[in-house]
Design brief:
The chain is an alpha+beta fold and 99 residues long. It has helices spanning 25-34, 53-59, 82-85, 90-93, and strands at residues 5-11, 17-22, 40-46, 71-72.
Length: 99
């Protein structure tokens, strides 16, 4: 049996990151986009790693954006585990402030 996938989604205006888990991150992105006033993009999806979502939320607690649940300020990126940072295409993630 496979576990859920870990994903990171980013707002193109604020740079904020959503760290979540889902069986289908692209479908989840579409669902979140409906309720978002900013364009969202999927930065990474890592198979069968959804079980560490809660650990990451605890580790990044000081970066949490209270009113948005699983959303964190972009400043949290420096505190992500190395293996997760390596899964992100930073050429895509680092362009949000150019808007």
């Amino acid at each position: 049996m496979h576990g859920k996938n870990l994903y990171i989604i980013q707002s193109d205006i604020t740079g904020d990151l959503k760290i979540g888990r889902s069986n289908n991150a692209r479908k989840r992105l579409k669902e979140l986009q409906v309720g978002s006033h900013t364009k969202l993009k999927l930065l990474c999806e890592i198979s069968n790693m959804g079980h560490i979502e809660k650990h990451l939320h605890r580790k990044l607690k000081k970066y949490k954006i209270r009113q948005h649940g699983e959303w964190f300020t972009f400043d949290c990126a420096g505190n992500l585990p190395d293996w997760l940072c390596e899964a992100i295409d930073w050429n895509i993630a680092n362009i949000w402030w150019e808007k």
